[in-house]
Prior knowledge:
The complex is a heterodimer.
Chain A lengths: L1 H26 L1 H5 L16 H8 L1 H35 L2 H11 L6 H15 L5 H24 L5 H8 L4 H29 L3 H6 L7 H11 L4 H25 L1
Chain B lengths: L7 E12 L2 E12 L3 E5 L6 H9 L6 E6 L2 E2 L10 E4 L11 H11 L4 H14 L15 H13 L5 E5 L7 H18 L2 E6 L2 H7 L2 E6 L2 E6 L1 H6 L4 H6 L4 E11 L2 E6 L2 E6 L8 E6 L5 E3 L6 E10 L3 E8 L3 E8 L12 E5 L5 E4 L3
Helix pairs in contact in B: 2-3, 2-4, 3-4
Protein name (chain A): Putative spermidine/putrescine transport system permease protein
Membrane topology (chain A): Multi-pass membrane protein
InterPro entries (chain A): MetI-like (IPR000515), MetI-like_sf (IPR035906)
Amino acid sequence: MQKASFFRIAMRTGAWMVLAFLLLPMLVVVPVSLTDHSYISLPGQGLSLAHYVNYFTNPRWLEATWQSVVIGVAVSALATLLGTAFAVGCWFLSDFWATVARWVLITPLLVPPVVQALGFYRFWVQLGLIDTLGGVILAHTLLALPYVTISVFAALANLDRRIPQAARSLGASVWTTVISVVVPAARPGMLAGALFAFIVSFDEIVAVLFLTVRNVQTLPKMIWQGIQDNIDPTIAAVATVLTLLTASIMVVVSLRRRN
Amino acid sequence: MTAPSSPSVLSIRKAVKRYGTVQALGGIELDIGEGEFLTLLGPSGSGKTTLLTAIAGFTGLDEGRLVLRGKDITDLPPDRRDFGMVFQGYALFPTMNVRNNIAFPLKVRKWKPADIQARVEECLALVQMEGFADRMPSQLSGGQQQRVALARALSFRPSVLLLDEPLSALDKKLRADLQWELKDLHRKLGVTFIYVTHDQDEALSMSDRIVILKDGLVQQIGEPGALYNAPRTTFVADFLGKSNFLDVEVEGFAGGRARCRAGGESFEVATEAPPAGGRGRVALRPERIRLAPPKGAAFEGAIRQTSYLGERCHVILDHPGFGQILVSCPTWKSGVVPEDGLPVSFDWDADACVFLEDA
C-alpha cells in the first residue's frame, strides 16, 4: 500500500512536470505581452496594454493579419474543393492506381519543408508567381491537400458502397449521386479538412520566406522579422491573441461535438 | 413449365461474365414474364447476384444481350433502366429522413412537389409505415428500414423490382412475416419481381418460378412444386429440400413402373421412361418414407439417431444395403415413437422416387 502510493505520487509529479514543460513556454508570452518596458522582458513596475494597442492600431500588423486570413480562407476553400474531388474519385475507383495516387498525394507530408520551399521557389520564378498573393495561396494549397484528402478518406471509409449504387438504380446520374449522396457523407471530413488547411496556411512560414519579398506580408513573417530586427513585445501580444483565439475555437468545437 | 406463363418483359440472351479465369455467368438464357415473381436461387458463388447486378446495370456483361420489352438495354447505365432495386443491408441514404429517401427517385425525375408529397404518403401506407416520415434511418429497426427501402424502390412505379437478399439480415420470425407481406405486395401491384436468395424456404414460399443456379449456369427452372417434386439433377434434389440418393439397377419396366434393385432390396419407381443402360440414380424425399414397427413394412432397419424439431422429427436409419437413410416424420402422427437404437421397418410409395439425369 505504502509502495503503491509512492509510485502514484512519482507518476503524478512526472506527468505534471511534462505538462508544465509543454505549457510554460507558451504561457510565458502572456506576462511578456503585458510588460511596461519597450523590449521583450517580464513586467517591471506594473502591467501595460500598450503592446496590444500597438498591434490593433499599427497598419503594418493589421495588414499582415488581414493577408494571412485572406490567404488562409482561400487555401482552405481551394484545398477542400480539390482534396474532396480527389478523395471521392479515388473512393469510386478504389483500384490499384487509386491507391498509388493516394500515396503520391500524401508524400508532401514526408518531404522536409525547406526542400519543398526550394522546389516552389524554382518553379514560381519561372511562372512569375514570386511575391504574389496567388503564388502563396497556390503553394499553401499544395501543402494543405494531404490533410484534406486524409480526413475525407476517413469520412468515406464508413460509407456503404451500395448507397451510391442505390442512388444510381433510383435514377440519379453519376453527378447527382456524388452531390446528393457522397458529398453529404464526406461533409464531416471536409469540415475537418478545411479547418486543417486554414491552420496549415495560417502558421506556415518557410514557403512564405522563400516566395515573398515585400508585397506579401503574412503574420508569421511579421513575427519572424520582428524578432530579427527589434525586440518589440508586440510579438508577445500577437502570440497571446492567437493562442486565445485558437483555444476558444477548440472549446467551441468540442462543446458543439458534445451536444 | 420452364417458360413464363405471361408475355416476356425481360429477356436475357447468352449472358456471359468472367472475372479473370472464373466464369461467373456461363451463357445464361432466361425469359421473365410480365408480373412474375421470379427467384434466382443458388449457393454463394453460383452467379445469382452477378446476374442481378448485370440486370441492374452495375456489372457489364462480357457477352450477351438484355432485352426489355423488345428494347436492347445492354449498354444503358443503371439510372436509365428504370428498375427499382432493394439492396442487401437496405442502403438507405443515412443523411436523409424517411420522407426524403422515398422522395429521392421522384426528385431526380423532376416530379412536382405536390405530387411527390402525395406519392410519398401513398408509399408509406403501402408498407405500413405511416407516421415514420420524419425519422432518420438510424432511428429505425431492421424490419422498418427494409420497408422504407421497398417503398423507395417502388415509389417511381418501376415495371421491374430487383431484390438482392432483402431479408437476409432479419431474424427468422420477422423474415417469415415479411415473406407474406412481399407476396401480398407483389399480388397487389402486379410489378415483376426478380428476387435473389440463397434461402430455399424463401424461394419456395414466394416464387411463381424458381431458377436454380450453380457455377454460373442454370440448373433447372420451374414452379416451386414442380422443382421440389421432380428435380432433374443431384444438385437440385439436394439443394432444394433434403433428399436420399439410391443408385439402382433397372430390372424391368411395365405399366409406368420400373422394377429397381439397390442394396439387395427390390422396389418399384413410377416413371414414364426409365434411364437407358439399365442403371440410374433416384432421389427420395425424407418425408415420403413411412416408419412402422419391425416386420410391418418392406425393409428392415434400425434407428441410429433422432433429432426432435417440434412439429417434425428427423430420424437417421441404418439399413445394411442402403446405408444411412434420412426420414422426416410428423411428431403428432407416426407409426413408431422414434428412439435411438430402436429396430424399425420402413417403405415408400412407387411415386416417391424420382430418376435423376446426372446419375
